[in-house]
TrEMBL record:
It catalyses: L-threonine + hydrogencarbonate + ATP = L-threonylcarbamoyladenylate + diphosphate + H2O. It is found in: Cytoplasm. The keyword DNA damage does not apply. Belongs to the SUA5 family. TsaC subfamily. This is Threonylcarbamoyl-AMP synthase. Gene3D superfamilies: DHBP synthase. PROSITE patterns: YRDC. Required for the formation of a threonylcarbamoyl group on adenosine at position 37 (t(6)A37) in tRNAs that read codons beginning with adenine. Catalyzes the conversion of L-threonine, HCO(3)(-)/CO(2) and ATP to give threonylcarbamoyl-AMP (TC-AMP) as the acyladenylate intermediate, with the release of diphosphate. HAMAP family: TsaC. It is an enzyme of class 2 (transferase). The gene is tsaC. Pfam families: Sua5_yciO_yrdC. The lineage of its organism: Bacteria, Pseudomonadati, Pseudomonadota, Gammaproteobacteria, Cellvibrionales. Coiled coil: none annotated. Its EC number is 2.7.7.87.
Length: 187
């Protein structure tokens, strides 16, 4: 899947500066920002009309980017996660207070995904760590499956929209709870 490297660099610099951007993921378009920039996260939530209590997903192309969030997991738990990565599986893992409440919401866990989408993985790498990535749609609307649909939803309220096409998967990422093994959302 080809995409302009300049887009990756521009998008990563924009995120580092506090921007909210739209980018393709494995199945749908996503909205992304710096997870540790509270203003950016609040703006993203406002654009989506999403309550902070629901929490957000952190995405990277490299599981090492999740650092301390994986340190307290058992070898079996780590193996279970890494066997499904990179790919469209999001894991809920205990966050042990290592992420801000505007990321975890009302939960004791945080959602992590190691993506196999080339643009999204390159974007997190260029940014230097995991990014927030949540479906690009206002609450109650279907997730955007094209750049055109992103623009219809959000117009010029985003700082950057780009990165090529989605990975072509029809269903969103599966969400699994690492501690209980429960499938929260089938993929």
């Amino acid at each position: 899947m080809a995409f302009p490297l300049l887009d990756v660099r521009f998008a990563a610099r924009a995120i580092a500066a506090g921007a909210v951007i739209a980018h393709p993921t494995e199945s749908v378009w996503g909205l992304a920002c710096d997870p540790f920039n509270r203003d950016a996260v609040e703006r993203l939530l406002q654009l989506k009309n999403r309550p902070v209590a629901k929490g957000l997903i952190l995405v990277s192309g490299d599981s090492d980017d999740f650092g301390g969030l994986l340190d307290n997991l058992s070898a079996e738990q780590r193996q279970k996660m890494t066997e499904s990565w990179p790919g469209p599986v999001t894991w809920l893992v205990p966050h042990f207070g290592l992420v801000p409440p505007w990321i975890s919401g009302d939960h004791h866990s945080v959602a992590l995904r190691c993506t196999d989408h080339p643009f999204t993985a390159a974007l997190a790498h260029a940014f230097g760590g995991p990014i927030v990535s949540t479906s690009a749609n206002p609450g109650g609307c279907q997730p955007a499956r094209s750049k055109y649909q992103v623009l219809r939803y959000f117009g010029d309220s985003l700082d950057f929209v780009g990165g090529g096409a989605t990975g072509g998967r029809q269903s969103p990422s599966e969400i699994r709870d690492l501690v209980t093994g429960q499938v929260i959302r089938a993929g």
